[in-house]
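Request: Not sure, any thoughts?
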Amino acid sequence: MTRALLIVLLLGSGCARPEEARSRAARVVPVETAPVIRGSLALTRSLTGAIEAAEDRVVSADRPGRVRHVAYDLGEQVAPGSVLVTLDDRDSQVRLRAARASLSVTRARARQSARRRDLARRERERIEALQAEGVSSSADLDAAATAEAEAAAAAEVAEAEVARARAELGAAELERDRTVLRAREGTRWVVAARTVDPGVLIEAGQPLLTLIALDPLQATVFVSEADHARVKPGQAVTLRVEALGGDRPHPGRVARVAPRFEPGSRQARVELEIDNPSLELKPGMFARVEIALGELQDALIVPQDALTKRREVQGVFQVDGDEARWIPVELGATSSPLVQILSPALEGRVVTLGQNLLEDGTQIRPLSPAAP
């Protein structure tokens, strides 16, 4: 008999006449059962949280100017290192050309000064040689030494002018570069907001674009005091999003665990890093997060479907020959679709479908499991 037939029998029993209801306990009730097992049980916690962008960046210029080009629009993916916004750079190009020309002139002057210094040094060495032979006077040597010193000082000034011209060129290049705003390398950005168009005159610091990083994303959940010690950075997590169907798992990991508990909730903040290579997850989505906290060994395990309540007491119906015996139980860890039984020490099989028709001692007829 299939599960469908069992459900028909169960529904049909609700239409029984009062005299039939009174004799229900005397009838044989078809049920489905499952074995009580001992084994390992993964400790998991199912938590809820909101997905957030791991990083966002407001793009603005640090100088005023007129916008010449905006490369990306709202919702578009941004290539790492690509140009985002270009400002009018005509003034910057003029200053850059002037700085390059100034550097060329100062370099030529420095080369000329260096040659004069070298000539003055050789002249002083020649006069020293003549004086040693008694041909030249001390006055001639003093004059040559003075000329050499003046030439050396002029060469130093020329080198300083070259350094100054290089600095001016660097400043001009920096000014030119400030007219081109680029995305940071190594991050996959998406445009979350665009607040400027070409031709607009902007002020320094005015927001132009807002970028968010969508891979990886971040999610925040909160764990209790009992679970806090089991949650460690690097631990694997699985995230499911109802807006995307809720069935497909998205892998992630624990990024950071807060070292304190919130005073009101007595829970600690846990930040997760979620892989999002397809970019289908979006900030603001609501998600269910499963975190594996370890594994129980030699646990007594039954299906969660076996649990039922009688007079607000949690228990199971244990198969005892052709009868069902009501057994109150103390529950332990849950790892859907299984649950740990702390006490009593059950064995055999338990009813997983048909409990609503059972009382302690009701006769039962176990059915074969439905075909998948």
